[in-house]
Amino acid sequence: MTAAPRHPSSTRHKARKRALDILFEAELRGRSVLVTLAERTDAAEPPVREYTGEIVRAFDAHAEDVDARISAALAKDWSLDRMPRVDRTACRIAVTEMAYLGLPVGVAITEAIALVEELSTDESPTFVSGVLNNVVID
Question: Is the preceding omega at residue 46 within 30 degrees of 0, hence cis?
């Protein structure tokens, strides 16, 4: 019997990482996430998985609510704009998945932590975990 793949090689993890790339790029360039998604899908290098599109489209449809939930979870002296961009984007993906794609809270938090462990600062996993544990999902 073979063991289940670890997070970095799982299909969903790769889809989340690609969604992070797309959301990060769109914010950095001041462009629509849907336009950026379409460009990346057309280029297909690397390929854009179906779940990546689901995440990006759900975030686009609910961006204001997602950001409000994250902002409400931050400490008083923090703002969404003050968060490192990778951390903010990983939190946006996690909240989108929890609130709009039905992903269990624990799974979403674990996946966000895996993304920031791979792509952000040494302090990011603890920070992102703290923020996401304070997000209210109805």
Answer: yes
d(CA 42, CA 53): 12
Does this model's pTM top 0.90? My answer is yes
Contact partners, residue 97, CB within 8 Å, separation at least 6 = 55, 58, 103, 108, 111
Segment 36-85, tens digit of pLDDT:
999 999 987 778 999 999 999 999 999 999 999 999 999 999 999 999 99
Six token digits for residue 108: 């979403």
Domains of the chain: 9-134 (1.10.940.10)
* Per-residue pLDDT reduced to its tens digit, 97-124: 999 999 999 999 999 999 999 999 999 9
